[in-house]
Structures
1.
Amino acid sequence: MYVCSCFGITEQQVKQHVDGGACTPRQIASACKAGTDCGSCVRRIQAILGRGSCPRRDLADRNEPVLADLEDAA
């Protein structure tokens, strides 16, 4: 099932990034651009992230770039 229609990102791909250490929507966006165009998939990404646990989520939130920085880099 597609999570991000803009970039053709599937739920399985998002889960692979989560398994690789992504804990926030911003980290998912950094890994595959999902959530950086129209933004309609961000809630779905949040739901996927909410199913698992990320012991380093608080630390990750403090150290990641803001969405505007990701857009500037693109």
2.
Amino acid sequence: MTGTPREARLLSLYVKVAIFWLLVTMLAGILNALRFMAPDFLGGISWLSYGRVRLIHTNAAAFGWITTIYLALMFYMVPRLTGAELYLGEKLGKLVLWAWTLIVAAGLVGFALGYNQGIEYGEFSWPIDILVVVAFLVVIVMIFGAIFKRREQQLYVSLWYLMGGLVWTALNYLVGNSVPVYLAAGVNSAAIAGFYIHNVVGLWVTPIGLAVIYYFLPVSVRSPLYSHKLSLIGFWTLAFLYPLTGAHHFIYSGIADWVETVAIVSSVALIIPVWTVVVNFFGTVKGNWWRFSGNLPMKFFVLGVVFYVMTCLQGPLQALRTLQQIVHFTDWVVGHAHMALFGVFSLWSIAAIYYMWPRLTGRELYSMKLAHWHFWLTAVGFGLMGTTLWAVGLLEGSFWQTSLPFVSYVRFAKPFWWIRLVSGIMMALGTLLFFYNLHQTERQGRRLQAGEAPVSDLGGRVVVGA
């Protein structure tokens, strides 16, 4: 499955389904953000109640948008990194797409009807959990099948992260959706749930996201990765440190102090894999900054790295007991979660789509102007959302430590919540422009000549080798 018309059709379908889930995520987020100003809005409709819509928002983000686009990007990267076809190629790839779409849709409908397990990111009912694990096992067979029969001698770092992320997540999902629900109780259940919740991000979203930037950044700026050795240091420190951090969500709880302390130390030590990525990023783009104004993928990669540094400074800080006293249960935590899933890994995935789409369709991007509108609506919108949530979170924590009545805090926070709503609408509008631009590229984009690089790569038409 390498560069064939069938591959292009399949992967373009993956991208469209993924963006559909991104729009569902944003719509649910906007609906609940609106309720902070108008709590009774659609309040009489049970399946649109705040709690149910929140589950739709979080799970559509993690399992609808992020996982679907990761599958597309994996299926694009692996044949090119291995020189080998995916096991059963397009046939199994199409089956995985429709099966995964039905799994996510069934889970979200279940939330609307009031069915969930009560574990964060593990709310799907148990029959759906079984299907999720089976789907991951099928993808593992496809990916590992290509790696085992690869024609490239080098095992590139992106493949390390793909293999790790798939195996870790299949195990993590199985443990997180069984032990806290059926086998453990009380504090033990909470501790294992914390392990699971944080590893959805740390052992799925993060390693696959790093595989994406380690592949698509070098090819988009036409420069080799700065340091393969540094990237492997990041891989092994991520593997050993991240699973220990989950309890930092439960500081001052009934979980043993030594477990919380291990989680805090591990959270701070995660600066090691973070800086391997940051140093590799700037080392790779060194000498290529002249491409920034015209290279669309590079714009999103750079913006994502800025948010990555902010996220990975904020995370260890909020794990510290002193700051945790202030920010726990505040909008600071909400801002942190959004900064990771959208500000970093969604932006890197969007950058990869902008690189991949002209090559899948064989057409020039329909409108660079629309693409730049998408970038600025996303950058400004999310920048406002993230910083606003962080700021109001600190203020919330400070308010709660006074004797002022709770309603006084609500009145104070409303302007910040309005900013969150407006910024969310900006991001959704940018995503609609993104989807329209990709759709029009397929229909009306100028056909690329053999060997011609898309305008979205360099800001001008460049024939490779000319």
